[in-house]
Amino acid sequence: MRTLMAYAAGLLFGLGLAISGMTDPARVLGFLDIAGEWDPTLAFVLGGAVITTFIGYRLVLRRSSPFFGDKFQLPTKRELDSRLLGGAALFGIGWGLSGYCPGPAIASVVGLTTPLVAMLVAMIGGWWLAKRFSGGH
Asked: Greatest CA span in the chain, whole angstroms?
């Protein structure tokens, strides 16, 4: 049941990305282009996600455990380090150059294009390099 719920959550997330326009790199790049022809529509997607998460966490964490798991798996690390900042910078650069971040890129695989393939190859290469040079952490 746990695996089925994980797939259902992934499907719901992917559908949300597609419906909201997050899988359209032109729309994402328009949102990121604040000095040019800015497209503010994704600000509503971001706002909806923040509000949903804010409320959802408060409701869900009232429970002692998840419905389909033994315990909640929440991040415990609080400090900013070079790995976190470097990863955030690489994420931002990749998102700004391609218009894709990992979730929308994977959700867009059904409409495979050359730029999407390039982004996916770079993303997988980055994962491989990070694992190789971080000692598997």
From this structure: 49
pTM: 0.70
Whether the per-residue pLDDT at 136 is higher than 80: the answer is no
CB atoms within 10 A of CB 90: 14
Check whether 42 has a pLDDT greater than 70.
yes
Other residues' Cβ atoms within 10 Å of the Cβ of residue 29? 17
Q: Is the dihedral of CA 96, 98, 102, 104 positive or negative?
A: positive
Q: Tell me if 23 sits within 8 A of 99, measured CB to CB.
A: no
What residue spans of 71-135 are helical by DSSP H?
82-98, 102-107, 114-133
Amino acid at 104: P
